[in-house]
Amino acid sequence: MRSACRLCGAALKHTFTDLGMSPPCEAYVPAERLASAEAFYPLHVFVCEECLLVQLPEHVSPQEIFTEYAYFSSYSDSWLAHAKAYAARMVDRFELGPDKLVVELASNDGYLLQYFQGMGVPVLGVEPAANVAKVAVGKGIPTRVEFFGQECAARMVDEGIRADLIAANNVFAHIPDVRSFTAGMKTLLKPGGVITIEIPHLMRLMEGNQFDTIYHEHFQYWSFIAATRMLSDFGLTVFDVEELSTHGGSMRIYARHAEDTARLVGERVRELTRREEEAGFTRLETYFSFDEKVKRTKQNILSFLIDAKRAGKSIAGYGAPGKGNTLLNYCGIRTDFLDYTVDRNPYKHGRFLPGTRIPIHPPEKLRETRPDYVFILPWNLKEEIRQQLAYVREWGGQLVVPIPDIEVLK
Length: 410
Description:
It comes from Ramlibacter henchirensis. It is a single chain. The chain is 31% helix and 20% strand. It is of the alpha/beta class. The chain folds into two domains: 65-279, Rossmann fold (3-Layer(aba) Sandwich); 290-408, NAD(P)-binding Rossmann-like Domain (Rossmann fold, 3-Layer(aba) Sandwich). The strands form three sheets. It has a seven-stranded mixed sheet with strand order 6-5-4-7-8-11-10. The protein has a six-stranded mixed sheet with strand order 14-13-12-15-16-17. Strand 7 (163-169), helix 6 (178-188) and strand 8 form a beta-alpha-beta unit. Helix 5 (150-158) runs parallel beside helix 6 (178-188). The longest helix is centred in the C-terminal third of the chain and has 21 residues, at 290-310. 47% of the residues are buried.
């Protein structure tokens, strides 16, 4: 049975890229389960011939992925700085104060809402992962532990909750029932309110060869045109868009009720739509070039690692992100190439990467073993990590990033 497109319902039959079989990217393996089997699922991504939404069929349910989650946003300094700047900008642009309410969907550990709260703006988080939400509550941030969608939004409205600003940062790709999610945003938003959605931009993913952004918790890969269409289907109008450097290139989309004509559609909306059209994002054949590009990058990564090991070099990883697990499993990189990886998140210490079973240690392990190369898996944070790992040069070590192609940093 063919899967159906989440946006328009058409049958999915055209491959965008096929990364083979992989375990869920956040399913870190505890030591006591090393002798147990893991579940692997297809990472075969399709593009809809009707609406051109790029999407991964739902092989793993959100409940399996997000009920207990290993990703805590606050462990990235640059991401916290991004969140703080966003909060300040929203407060200023939309005149948010003590009589307004900011609701973040997929609010994680309170990394963002803490800044609105610190500026005197009431906040509410909605986060399905109880272990992560507990951290936010510990910071004094009110958090509902549930999955957001149309039913959740209706319950919130029945309780008298309506949002002046809805922040949906890095969640719009994570929702298989994205139509219910979008309908819920429409329901929850006050008249005159604003929704902001931050999502990785498909145009940048393709330009930068960012195939490791594909994993089972990312169900959609959005062009601006496709995202605009989804919002329009539910009576939401995009009135502004910003292009961001985060996550290898993202969009911040601003939307409001279609009937709210006070906020006019800006020139940046028309300009980005035009650029996507000129780049071919309204033509099916544009999407077919990506798969071959991915295969060449895999070959280049493996060639570098093989040459390094033959030369007697030691290689350790830095980070244990979801994107890294896609890359390692697709390329077949295990402890024959990476001795171990390190991560700042204590939740992951003593565990092993899914599929590849590479051990995860605290960052101090790098000083102990002094590897020749440090393979940076969260390459989108390479400038932050380059500063953190400046000490690697003390023993002549070098930093390596795999995307958009393998590179030894100078």
